[in-house]
Amino acid sequence: MKINIYIVDKKGKKELYEPLVEHYRKLCRPWAQVEVHEIFGKEIARAQDQGPAQAQKSYTQALERFRGSGYDIVLDPEGREVTSEAFAELLKDRQVVNFYIGGAYGFERSFVHTSDKSVSFGRITLSHKLVKVVLMEQIFRGLSIIHHHPYHK
């Protein structure tokens, strides 16, 4: 199984969050290859300065090329909140799963609606880097549930 995480975020603060991301990536290795792709460039930076609509459009344009190569799941505050067991079901029996974490302004509604699923980690606002860590932990937890590993208990 291959799991891709596409996140609209500037690279940085690796010393704070990257050890946790690496920790969960290592734990997932027996069951899945997990890759994190940080997407950010001058176009996105310019668009964010122009406002929310332009920023959302730039996120969609940057991430659209990765869609369609697997089961696409968008993290979205308006998405469905799921239990860890339901999250595991999203991963079960899939060859490729792509997760998308938007930029500061979230995604255009069309990007969310044309994805296979949208999931919310709650109504609170978290930094992108922290969401990436939470997602990595939930991926490991989901894989643990699928493979009857005791981590989930």
Automatic annotation (TrEMBL):
Main localization (coarse): cytoplasm
Source organism superkingdom: Bacteria
Gene Ontology cellular component annotations, sorted alphabetically: cytoplasm
Record has Ribosomal protein as a keyword: no
The protein's Enzyme Commission number: 2.1.1.177
Similarity remark: Belongs to the RNA methyltransferase RlmH family.
Protein name, as recorded: Ribosomal RNA large subunit methyltransferase H
